[in-house]
Amino acid sequence: MSKNTTSIMIVGVGGQGTLLTSRVLAQVAVQMGYDVKVSEVHGMAQRGGSVVSQVRYGEKIYSPIISKGDADIILAFEKLEAARWLDYLKPGGLVIINDDRVDPLPVMSGKAKYPVEIADRIKEMMPETIIVNATDIAVECGNVRAANVVLLGVLTGAIGLPAEEVEKAIEAIVPAKALEVNLKAFQKGSQVFVGTN
């Protein structure tokens, strides 16, 4: 991988593990000798609101903030969040979407409808889109909360990060009691990416 800047937006809702994922990615970048900056916007995270992490790494990073149209990758833990942040993706950028639905408050209260087939519509607009059911894979691995690490595995394969560096970062950051499930989830996610090519 070149020393050019890579800008990744991690989007989801509170409780999906976006912040842990950004910490692991930042750790990987540090291990690989890159300069890295991270920005986190929690919003109403504790109430299932939108959560966004921005991770930028490269030879020299001056700002953690990704401007509209500048993200190389959007890693979306939920379908509607992928759509919400799509205008931040650069032309030809990559979108990785967990095929999971978390109804926002307006949908739960009956004031709005959840958009039908939203992930497929994103894929039509953005050809570089990978849709994966990370939640089901995480359940197979033993913990639904590991869906974020499944997606991290897909991302690792997609952008060519060394798997051993990511595993080392997971070992450094994930609590010991959850480590085995998370490593398994990461490996399964990596295999999913191989299967999409």
Brief rundown of the structure:
By secondary structure, this protein is of the alpha/beta class. The chain has 8 helices and 6 strands; from the N terminus they run βαβββαβααβαααα. The protein has a 6-stranded mixed beta sheet, with helices on both faces.
List the helices and strands and how they pair.
Blueprint: E1 6-13, H1 18-31, E2 35-41, E3 50-58, E4 71-76, H2 79-84, E5 89-98, H3 105-108, H4 118-125, E6 129-132, H5 134-141, H6 147-159, H7 163-173, H8 176-195
Parallel strand pairs: 1-4, 4-5, 5-6
Antiparallel strand pairs: 1-3, 2-3
Helix pairs in contact: 1-7, 5-6, 5-8, 6-8, 7-8
Which features characterize this protein?
6-stranded mixed β-sheet, single chain, globular, alpha/beta, 6 strands, 197 residues, Pyruvate-ferredoxin Oxidoreductase, domain 3
Give a structural overview.
The chain is an alpha/beta fold. It has one domain: Pyruvate-ferredoxin oxidoreductase, PFOR, domain III (Pyruvate-ferredoxin Oxidoreductase, domain 3), CATH 3.40.920. It has 8 helices and 6 strands, in the order βαβββαβααβαααα. Strands 2-3-1-4-5-6 form a 6-stranded mixed sheet, with helices on both faces. α6 (147-159) packs across α8. The radius of gyration is 16 Å and the shape is globular. The model has no long low-confidence stretch (mean pLDDT 89).
